[in-house]
Amino acid sequence: MDLPKLAIAALGGTVSMQSLQSGEGVVPSVSGEALLNTVPELKTLAQLTVETLGLLPGASLDFEYLLNVLCWANFQINQGAAGVIIVQGTDTLEESATFFDHLWEHDEPLVLTGAMRSAAQAGADGPANLLDAGRVALAQSSRGRGAQVVIQGQIHRASAVRKVDAMALHAFASPVTGPAGLLMEGVVRYLQPPVARQVLPVPQNTNQTIALLEASLSADSLLLENVVALGYDGLVIAGFGAGHVSAHWANVIETITRHIPVIIATRTGGGSTARSTYGFEGSEIDLQRKGAVMAGFTCPRKARILLWLLVGCRQQEHLASYLDQTG
After folding, report:
1. Is residue 14 among the annotated active site residues?
2. Residue pLDDT, tens place only, 294-308
3. Within this chain, do residues 233 and 93 fall inside the same structural domain, yes or no?
């Protein structure tokens, strides 16, 4: 029996990094082909197509770049791939996964992975993560689950996963739901059923810009007051607690919502914004009355991605319903 086809795109990131000059730190320099050579077992599981689409740190990826990667991934599925793996930097892994999850229209799995240790470090985790990603991408039980992150033996839904530590090996978690699955003795085991997703059309517009501001104690409103004048097409605010801002910010937000959509998320890193608990000026009840939309469980960074996509395909009027589904 022929082995299934598996497509792997290497974008760069820590997994591809090594030092090219003593004392200068590590930089992306290891190709996808070279990375694959560190995982010989993967070649026994599938017919592999590997392409190095870039050698960028995760912080330098952008939406336009990811749309090109999406086109590549769609092509691979249309050519018969049973699944696709994207290897990239972990700095933006949760955001890339969210971006792809909103646009992935196939039942075939799309799996993202990376590494916390560079290719040159002792105990580099990249090869093990890539092997696990391959197992997940090839598993029948992974079909219909959209984009997922596979790292350190865990499988995370794109909508749930967050990077929760800057440098630790176990830097990723799904704080609200827990991991969607695990890899045990090389076997993919899901702990949660697939979640219904509503896939968005690929945006025709890519010039839209969405601002992200965080509320903080005694913060001035200079940037907030100029969001519309600066030409932004939407605004996400990482609010206090369950989605709150100061009374002064609330008044500015009321003016902004007359021009562009505004999402209020929580800056806490866990839990959901409230809907109907607090009634003071700047509370969630007040902000909704002023035209803002609450993000629910969707974190500020992921809310920004959703709003960018909705504005790009002219569906921002459906923002509240999408957040209800995803958050």
Report:
1. yes
2. 999 999 999 999 999
3. no
